[in-house]
Amino acid sequence: MTDTLDDLDVEGTTVGVRIDVNSPIGDDGMLADDARLRAHVDTLSELIERGGRVAVLAHQGRPGGDEFVSLESHADRLSELLSHPVDYVDATFSNAAREAVSALENGDCIVLENTRFYSEEYMEFEPERAARTHLVQGLAPVLDAYVNDAFAAAHRSQPSLVGFPTVLPGYAGRVMESELDTLGSIEETPEPRIYVLGGAKVPDSIDVAWSVLEKGLADHVLTAGVVGNVFLIADGVDLGDASSDFIYDQGYWDEIDRAADLLDAYGEQVALPRDVAVERDGQRHEIGVNALPPQDGEAAMDIGSSTLAYYERLLEDAGTVILNGPAGVFEDEAFETGTRELYNAATAVEMSIVGGGDTASALRQLGVDGFSHVSTGGGAALRMLTAEPLPAVTALENGPTQQQPADD
Ligand SMILES: Nc1ncnc2c1ncn2[C@@H]1O[C@H](COP(=O)(O)OP(=O)(O)OP(=O)(O)O)[C@@H](O)[C@H]1O
Ligand SMILES: O=C(O)[C@H](O)COP(=O)(O)O
Fold first, then answer.
1. Distance between CA 41 and CA 89 in Å, rounded?
2. The whole model's pTM is what?
3. In this structure, what CATH number is given to the domain that contains residue 332?
4. Measured in angstroms, how far is the CA atom of residue 359 from the centroid of ligand 2?
5. Nearest ligand, CA of residue 61?
6. What is the DSSP letter of 44?
7. 3-state DSSP: the chain helix, strand, coil percent, rounded to 5?
């Protein structure tokens, strides 16, 4: 169990708060979607209202990527969402950062620079080593406590996530607390338990499928999206050149053998699409698996209505459903049906849990809601849903094992 904000004496305490606001960025280099910022409003408002001195730490994008930008527009948007001034400081652990943090008064909030502007932050370390990085050694001396609210990054063993709680008392923020409460007790959720694996991250999904079937966590795994296409090919279905080329181009060709091995081991429990939707004459056209391959150039873009009916029947008996990844190319109106209908059917299950950032935005776009829990995390949620520990949570649970570096 980790301590939470209920265990922290906030007033007058200088708190480093790690949040996950890794978001889509527009062509102008500015924040294009604020969903992840909204998620942290409760934690930050509570710390501000309780008189904390709040220094926010977060990453944005990956080095070299288009979304690797500063957190200045995030700070502006946070200020609007919190209805409270939030200053931006373009430093993370230098003298300038330390001075800004030391100057905080009760109820003040600042956002420090993108942690990944600093190279060690993009590496994974054991917590003790992470605690010796420049970021932690530079900033920890001016902090009294560390709050981790960045559930969506908790599968990364990076300095801002595992280093600070190794030298400072650590607490789970409200997002982290709610995610751990729901996803941490997956073994106790009502059975039968069904995992629906769609989307495009085929290797991750196959890892999850193996893990939950081996551990006896899943009664059934339903496949959809690119994941479903890979399983169909593994089952000997000819999906045609367009879908096969797509899978090959994504570097997922070897996954077909892994999917085939999984079908050999757990075929009874793994459900495959019975039909797919392609684009023909500018319209959605459904083809039964027995009538495949499609015509030249046609790709399987969604699951079809027979698959939906089949999956809906399986979901009727489920106690818990865990879903990750859209069932098709939901961005295209002709191929959003599978995702909308399947996820709608899932909301009727006693316990319905959704993981994945793209999935959450697909559901917002399609207007589907009513789930028991929509996770803020993609990779982190998947890892928890297979009952695997998250390094950042383990570091919080273990508590400080090293002395806080001194401010000299
Ligand atoms: N049949 C298909 N062919 C091609 N692309 C597909 C197909 N089905 C789904 N997709 C694509 O999968 C993408 C989303 O998959 P992804 O695995 O990234 O979702 P996610 O797990 O919610 O994401 P994350 O956790 O990274 O936020 C969408 O862009 C969608 O268009
Ligand atoms: O968006 C995410 O899944 C988290 O912020 C982690 O980002 P990363 O995959 O770049 O480490």
1. 19
2. 0.85
3. 3.40.50.1260
4. 14
5. 2
6. H
7. 45, 15, 40
- ipTM passes above 0.90: yes
Q: CB within 6 Å of ligand 1 — which residues?
A: 199-201, 225-226, 229, 300-301, 324-326, 328-329, 331, 356-359, 378
> Residue 353, SS3?
strand
Condensed to tens digits (0 to 9), the pLDDT of residues 80-91 reads 999 999 999 999
| Nearest ligand to the CA atom of 360 | 1
The residue whose two tokens read 């009916």 is 309
Pair of tokens at residue 76:
């502006």
Beta-carbon neighbour count of residue 141 at 10 Å? 18
22 phi-psi bin (left φ>0, alpha ψ -120 to 50, beta other): beta
- What average pLDDT score do residues 279-299 get? 97
Tokens of 331: 């961005």
Q: Please report the beta strands in 82-167, taking only residues with DSSP state E, as ranges in sequence order.
A: 87-88, 109-111, 145-148
- How crowded is residue 5: how many other Cβ atoms within 10 Å of its Cβ? 21
For residues 117 and 164, state if they share a domain.
yes
Q: What is the mean pLDDT of the chain?
A: 96
Task: Tell which phi-psi region holds residue 11, choosing left (phi > 0), alpha (psi between -120 and 50) or beta.
Answer: beta
**201 within some domain:** yes
Q: What's the rounded Cα separation, in Å, for the pair 152 and 381?
A: 7
Residue 252 lies in a domain: yes
Please check whether residue 29 lies inside any domain of the structure.
Answer: yes
What confidence score (pLDDT) does residue 362 get?
83
Percent of the chain with pLDDT over 70: 100
**Distance in angstroms (rounded) separating the CA atoms of residues 33 and 408:** 40
Give yes or no: residues 151 and 234 share one domain: no
- Residue to substitute in 19, 21, 22, 122 for testing ligand 2 pocket (most ligand atoms within 8 angstroms of CB): 22
Q: What digits encode the pLDDT tens for the residues 347-360?
A: 999 999 998 777 88
